[in-house]
Specification:
513 residues; eight-stranded mixed sheet; four-stranded antiparallel sheet; 18 helices; 16 strands; 42% helix; globular
Length: 513
C-alpha cells in the first residue's frame, strides 16, 4: 500500500509499521541511520509530522534513538527479529536505505512465525547454534555460573530482571563530561589514585545521597567500589575479623547476593519476608549478628519495609546487630518519593551499599559503600589490596554528571519510561495470566508474579525459554518452599515486546497445565 492509499489519520501508524518491519527483516540493521524527517517526508509525499510521529513511536518502543548530529539510528530489533541481532552494517559504515527500499512491497505483521510447539525458527536455530539446552539452566540449586548462562541464552524476548533501559544511556552527556574532565586533568591525576576513590566523586556521592536518599555523610565516609558485588566481597574478611560468621538473608531474597556471601565463607540463614518486610522475630531466632536487607524495594517480592517493621529492625540493630543495606534500585519509585534509607536513621549500625548499575549501566562497575566508623580503615585496606582503587577517569566523569544535574535529569527520564513499561507488563499479565498475582509494582525494574498451579516455576521458566522468553524462576531466590512464580524484568524491554512476551508466557503455562 502506498502512502496515498492510506486513510487520513492513519499515515503515522502505516509508516511506523513499515519501518518496524524493515528493521525486523534485516533491511534496516542495527546501526543503520534513518533519513532526516524532512527528506523522508518529501520522498513519501507526506507531512513532516507523519514522519516525526513514526520516529517517536519507534523510539518509545526502544527500536531507534536520536543521536543529535548522528540523526536517528536503529538501536534494537522488534519482537519479529527474534534471534538475528548480530547483523552487521554494510562495508564502509552504517547503511542508509532510501524510502523506496523501506516502503515498497513491505508486507506482513510483527508476529513471528511459529514452528514445532510454538518456538520460533530463529530462536530454535540460534539456541542450537549456541549449544544451549534451556531446561538445563533451571535446576533447583543453581551455581553462580547460571546468571552468565541465562544472559547468553538466545531468546526473542528478554525479561531477565535487574537491567535498566540501556538504550537511554546518556552518551552525549557522558562524552561532554569526559571531554571536560580530560581538558582539565593534570598529568599527576593519571597516576595511581586514592584507593578510597577520587575525591570529586566521593564528594558528589555524599551530595547525591543527601538529596536523593536522605543519607548525610561526609566524603571521607564514602568508599568507591566496583559495584555492590565488590562491596560484599570486601566485607567478607572485615566481618569475619569482627566475629561475624553468618549474615542472615531475606527469604525469598537475591540468589546472587547469597552466593557472594557464601563465597566469602559466611553462612546465610534465611529469614521470611511478609507484607511488611523481613520478620524481625525470625531474624532474632537465627542468632545471626548481621543481616543483608533490601528495605526500600525488597528483591524479589517488591515489598517496601513498613514503618513499624523499620522500628523493629532498628531496635534489633541497637541491641548489637549490623544491617547491610543494599539500596539497589530505591530511586525508581513511581507512586511517591522513595522511603528514606535505614542508614539515615542509625548510622553506626548500618553498612550502606549503592551503585549506578540500575541508574546508568552495570558495565560502569561503579558503586559506593558507607560503613560505620569502626570498619572503615579495614575496608580501605581490603580495597587497596584488592585492586588499588577504581579507574579514576570514569569516576571523574560520573562526578561531573552528578554535580551538573545530568544524572538527576536522566533519572527523571528513566522513571517515566520505566513506568510506561511497568504499566504495559501489568496490563499484559491481567490479559494473559489472569489468575496470577502481581507483586512489587510500586517501584523498581521488575515484577514478581506468583500463580496457582502444579507446574513448578523452574519447569515454567525452561518451557518459556524454549519458546523464546527469558526470565527467572522465583524458586531460585528461595531457601524455603513457597508458591511458584516468575521474576520478570520490564525496564529494558519496549512495551510491545513486553506484551508479546507475556502472551507467550500465558500460552506456555496453559500448555504445561
Amino acid at each position: 500500500m502506498a502512502a496515498d492509499d492510506v486513510p487520513v489519520g492513519g499515515k503515522a501508524e502505516w509508516l511506523t509499521d513499515r519501518l518496524r518491519q524493515a528493521i525486523a527483516d534485516g533491511r534496516l540493521v542495527v546501526g543503520s541511520r534513518l533519513p532526516p524527517t524532512r527528506v523522508l517526508a518529501a520522498e513519501l509525499r507526506v507531512s513532516r509530522g507523519v514522519v516525526t510521529e513514526a520516529y517517536r513511536r519507534l523510539a518509545e518502543d526502544g527500536e531507534v534513538a536520536g543521536r543529535r548530529r548522528g540523526g536517528t539510528v536503529v538501536v534494537a530489533t522488534p519482537f519479529a527479529a527474534a534471534a538475528p541481532l548480530t547483523a552487521a552494517p554494510a562495508a564502509g559504515g552504517r547503511r542508509r536505505l532510501s524510502a523506496g527500499e523501506r516502503t515498497d512491497g513491505i508486507g506482513g505483521t510483527d508476529e513471528t512465525s511459529e514452528t514445532g510447539e510454538g518456538e520460533t525458527g530463529e530462536t530454535r536455530g540460534a539456541r542450537e547454534a549456541h549449544g544451549c539446552r534451556p531446561a538445563g539452566l533451571f535446576v533447583d540449586d543453581p551455581g553462580p555460573e547460571v546468571f552468565d548462562a541465562l544472559r547468553a541464552a538466545p531468546a526473542a524476548v528478554d525479561l531477565i530482571p535487574g537491567r535498566p533501559d540501556l538504550t537511554t544511556f546518556p552518551r552525549a552527556a557522558w562524552l561532554r563530561a569526559e571531554r571536560a574532565v580530560l581538558a582539565e586533568l593534570s598529568a599527576e591525576h593519571l597516576g595511581y589514585g586514592d584507593p578510597r576513590g577520587a575525591p570529586p566523586l566521593r564528594r558528589a556521592v555524599a551530595d547525591w545521597l543527601a538529596r536523593v536518599r536522605g543519607v548525610r555523610v561526609g566524603p571521607d565516609e564514602v568508599l568507591i567500589v566496583a559495584g555492590t558485588a565488590q562491596a560484599l566481597t570486601l566485607l567478607h574478611p572485615v566481618l569475619r575479623a569482627d566475629g561475624v560468621d553468618a549474615v542472615a538473608v531475606e527469604d525469598p531474597g537475591s540468589l546472587g547476593a547469597r552466593q557472594h556471601l557464601a563465597n566469602g565463607g559466611l553462612a546465610t540463614p534465611p529469614v521470611p519476608v511478609d507484607r511488611e518486610g523481613v520478620r524481625v522475630d525470625a531474624l532474632r531466632a537465627t542468632g545471626a549478628r548481621a543481616v543483608l536487607l533490601t528495605p526500600a524495594h525488597q528483591f524479589p517480592t517488591g515489598v517496601v519495609t513498613g514503618g513499624e517493621r523499620r522500628r523493629e529492625l532498628l531496635e534489633w540493630a541497637r541491641d548489637g546487630g549490623l544491617i547491610l543495606e543494599d539500596d539497589y534500585d530505591a530511586e525508581h519509585r513511581y507512586d511517591r518519593p522513595p522511603v528514606p534509607a535505614l542508614r539515615a536513621l542509625l548510622a553506626d549500625r548500618v553498612c550502606y551499599l549503592g551503585s549506578v548499575s540500575k541508574l546508568l549501566a552495570p558495565a560502569l562497575r561503579i558503586g559506593w559503600l558507607v560503613a560505620p566508623a569502626r570498619y572503615r580503615a579495614a575496608l580501605v585496606d581490603a580495597k587497596r589490596f584488592n585492586d588499588l582503587g577504581n579507574a579514576v577517569l570514569p569516576q571523574l566523569v560520573l562526578a561531573r554528571l552528578m554535580d551538573s544535574g545530568e544524572l538527576e535529569r536522566h533519572l527523571r527520564l528513566l522513571r517515566g519510561r520505566h513506568r510506561r513499561r511497568r504499566d504495559a507488563m501489568i496490563a499484559a499479565l491481567a490479559e494473559h495470566l489472569p489468575g496470577a498475582r502481581v507483586h512489587g509494582a510500586a517501584a523498581g525494574l521488575h515484577l514478581t508474579v506468583t500463580y496457582a498451579s502444579d507446574v513448578s516455576d523452574t519447569e515454567f521458566a525452561a518451557a518459556a525459554l524454549a519458546h523464546g522468553v527469558k526470565c527467572q524462576p522465583l524458586s531460585w531466590h528461595r531457601q524455603s518452599p513457597g508458591r511458584p512464580g516468575l521474576v520478570l524484568g520490564y525496564a529494558a524491554t519496549p512495551p510491545g515486546v513486553i506484551a508479546d512476551g507475556v502472551a507467550l508466557l500465558g500460552r506456555t503455562l496453559r500448555a504445561l497445565g
